[in-house]
Design goal:
Layout lengths: L2 H25 L9 H26 L14 H9 L8 H10 L8 H18 L7 H23 L9 H8 L2 H7 L3 H15 L3 E2 L6 E4 L4 E2 L10 E4 L10 E4 L9 E6 L5 E6 L6 E4 L14
Helix pairs in contact: 1-2, 1-3, 1-6, 2-5, 2-6, 5-6
């Protein structure tokens, strides 16, 4: 990407993030089941604008500046930048941009479900803004879900290279949102529910996080999808004998060797507290309650 195109891309990207941040600020204003109509309208306006700008930024990066242009495709990139600065650069409509993505499915991981949500969200936005129609209570409840889907599943693939198997949208939002808004977002029930679903879908497990206490932590990638807690190389995991939770007991691997190879453990599934022992000879780990009276005859039998 040359410097002229880079300047156009960077400006569009920054504006996409700006509208996204403003949209989230509206969304998290209250956690009531029914959105205030004004919040619904402003949330839709900001998030839809962010989606449109994100589509443009993504296509510039992955295809070329000409992918988003209606005209002036023969101009040099230097002249395109000049027109851009003068607000004279004519770009394709939202529908045209969406069609490009739909026709080139290899560009971004958007399934039919993603495109259905794009269309549905646009319909809500048009109802609220262009037609000035009131939404029913059920529609407003669904709108809240659509907004959360948009800020997690639609905007993240366009604005980031995040792989949900190893990272979460919270990683992006912790960087770009101020602390107050980030804390509100990760306390917002619809967002928490979506992060729980993502943890299960992309990592296979979702247990209670020891930091935010939401069921959004996965020991498979050692990441909380909600608060972004990262325990990589800081914790170990073992199956819970009480509830049979797979890798559900978390314990401190950094200090277990300096504590006679035993340390407190906590089951993130059932909440039981127990001790974890790591055999110094074979490194097999197991849990126990009370005093370590098994040391003369260890379960590992090494």
């Amino acid at each position: 990407m040359d410097t002229y195109t880079q300047e156009i891309y960077s400006t569009i990207y920054k504006n996409a993030v700006l509208f996204l941040k403003r949209g989230i600020k509206e969304i998290i204003q209250n956690d009531r089941k029914i959105f205030d109509p004004e919040i619904a309208i402003m949330s839709c306006l900001y998030i839809q604008t962010s989606i449109e700008l994100s589509l443009k930024a993504y296509l510039i990066k992955e295809v070329d500046i000409t992918a988003i242009l209606k005209s002036n495709k023969s101009l040099s990139n230097e002249n395109l930048l000049e027109k851009f600065k003068q607000n004279h650069l004519k770009t394709k409509t939202y529908e045209e941009l969406k069609t490009i993505l739909n026709d080139k499915r290899d560009l971004v991981f958007f399934s039919d479900v993603h495109f259905e949500h794009l269309t549905r969200f646009q319909l809500y936005r048009n109802k609220l803004i262009h037609l000035n129609l009131f939404l029913s209570d059920d529609e407003i409840i669904n709108l809240k879900k659509e907004l959360i889907f948009a800020v997690t599943h639609l905007l993240m693939p366009l604005l980031t290279d995040i792989s949900f198997e190893f990272e979460s949208p919270s990683e992006f939002y912790e960087e770009y949102l101020d602390k107050e808004d980030f804390d509100k977002l990760i306390s917002f029930r619809p967002y928490i529910d979506e992060m729980h679903n993502m943890a299960i879908k992309y990592s296979g497990l979702a247990y209670e996080c020891i930091n935010c206490f939401n069921r959004t932590f996965s020991p498979n990638n050692e990441k909380c999808y909600c608060c972004n807690l990262d325990l990589f190389n800081a914790a170990g995991y073992i199956n819970c004998d009480a509830c049979e939770g797979k890798k559900a007991v978390v314990y401190d691997t950094l200090n277990i060797h300096d504590n006679d190879h035993s340390i407190n453990g906590l089951c993130m599934k059932c909440g039981n507290k127990m001790m974890v022992y790591e055999c110094p000879d074979c490194e097999v780990k197991f849990t126990y309650y009370g005093e370590p009276d098994f040391l003369e005859k260890k379960p590992c039998k090494c």
